[in-house]
Each structure stands twice: as structure tokens, then as C-alpha cells.
Amino acid sequence: MKRILALMIALAILCAVAVPSVFAEERFDTVMEYTNPSNYQIVIPETIDAGAEHLTFEAYSMNILDNEKVMIKLDGNNPIELAKEDNANFTAQVIIDCKDGDIVGEFYKDELSSHYNNDISMVVQNANQIPAGKYSGSVSFTVSLTDRA
Amino acid sequence: MENRHTRNAFKSKQINDTMAVGDNMKKRNIIIFILACLLIAAIIYILLNLRSCSAPSNQSETITADREAIDYTGDRSTTQLTDGKAGIAISGFKSLVFHADQLNQKVNFNNPKNNNCFQVMTLLVNNQNYWKSGYIAPGKGYYSIELTKPIPKGDYTAILKVDCYRNDFTPLNSANIEFELQVI
What we know:
The complex is a heterodimer of chains A (about 150) and B (about 180).
Chain A: H1 2-24, E1 39-45, E2 58-63, E3 68-75, E4 80-84, E5 87-97, E6 103-107, E7 121-124, E8 135-136, E9 140-147
Antiparallel strand pairs in A: 1-2, 3-6, 3-9, 4-5, 4-8, 5-7
Chain B: H1 2-54, E1 87-93, E2 95-98, E3 104-110, E4 118-125, E5 128-132, E6 141-146, E7 154-165, E8 174-183
Parallel strand pairs in B: 2-8
Antiparallel strand pairs in B: 3-6, 4-5, 4-7, 7-8
């Protein structure tokens, strides 16, 4: 009886010692890394109604870092020249009142509306001196992702 | 007579004591045996559990489908911009990495599917045109492009010019996406 007991206890101790050594071969740790680059999707107006009070910008996504921002700047001349749709000889000049020179929109992380949306106004120069009618033209914007100061 | 009686009583007490010691030994052996069995059972249990954790098991369970999801029959109207204004979605990014001395480069350029206009994209590096797309329909894009010429190694501030057009070629507002281009 004692022999059997001694044998069983020895077997139990052997198993207890063997467990870590058996699984030590299968387990290992490693570091997995991935950096998802910042990306965003802004929405620029398809057409701009120069008679509107403000020029506004929205975004569908702003997947950027806390220390980054997306800036929209007016590209090209300011005032913007619009041509009369039925007679290109007549033009209207629209001045966009930008922030810090040429900034018209700015987004921080997860913001879907530019925080300058209520600040960017538009003025049609000498509106009462140009012929009545519809004027149009396209505007170009430069969009960049930069570090926040 | 009395002496013999006393001796017998002593003898029987001795026998009783011996039997009691034997009983105690047996009990102790049984307890040790049960404890050993429990120890072995515990080790086997731990072993089996460790195996099931370390190796993926053939689970008999199957995925339960989300019952709230409905048949998807294409996009439907979603939230629109304020003031009822139509907008053009432009995808932007911070940086791209190109390989020097090769024309084929990997990119993620696309005309978002919620747009109602075509987009023509032009890649400008140092004001030089390295690639130009055709009219990209909404929901279409490029994962790789073929440059007109290789770009030398270096860090650049590049521009992806995105010109937008209606179906009848009427130009709409456009955007220049500025990004960091590393050519390695």
C-alpha cells in the first residue's frame, strides 16, 4: 500500500513539474505594431452662393491625431471673379473675408464642422453697379493636414 | 487466580491497543490515498484546460447571425449638409511613401461614393505633373498608379489636385490636397 501511495505521489509531483516545461515550448510573446495614418474626408461646397452670409465647410470624417488639424485655404485670387452666365463680359467680384490671410476652414480631431463656419463672410463688390442676373465661377481650395501650434 | 485474571485483562488490552493502532494506520492511508487521487485529478484538470487555451479547439458552436440586420439593397439617402447645400466629399491623407526608380506606386485615391460629380486627379510634385487620372466616377478610385517618370529620392510637399465636374463637364469647385511625400 505504501509503495502504491509513494508511486502515485511521485507521479503527481512529476506531472506538476512537467506541465510548465511542456507548455513553455509553445508559448512566446512578441510585439505587434500598426500605425494607422491620419485621414479625413472633408466636404467642400459644390457651388458657393456668394449672397449667403457665411462660407461653411463640413466633414464626413476627421480621423486625425489630437495634435493635428486640417486647414482649408483659399487657393488663387481673392476677390474671386464670377462671370455672368448669359454674358461673360460682365463679371462680379466676390471678396471672401478669410482668417489669417487665406484660411477659410479648420477642423480638429473628430470635428465635422469647421469652427470658422460663422466667421467667414463674403461680400460682392459694387453689387448695385453690376447688371442683374446670375453669376458663377469655380473656386479652388487647398486642404492640408498640419500640426496644431 | 486474581493474578491470572489481571494478566489476561492486560493481554486483551494490549491486543485492543494493537488493533486500534492498526485501524488508525488504515484510516491515515485511506486519507493519503484520497488526497493523492484529488491531487492527480486536479493536475489532469489543469493540463486539459491549458491545452484547450493554448490550441484552437474544434468548436461545435456556430456563428449566430445578427437578426437586426436587414437585406441591403444599395445606398439610401442619409443625412445631408445643412442649408440643403450640395457638397463634394474630398478624401485627404497626411502622407504617402513612394519608391524611387519605379513608376508603379501604391496609393489610396478615390472619389467618395456619396458624391454626385466626377473627379479628375492630378499628382503634382514640385509643380511638375507626375500622374493624371481620367474622370473618376463616384465610388471608384485607384490603389496603384503609374507615374509618367520616376521621382528622385527625397521628402516633398506634394499636391493631389482634385478637379470636380458635373456630368455635362461643368466645372465645380476644386481642391488641392497637400501631403507629405517621402520617396525612398
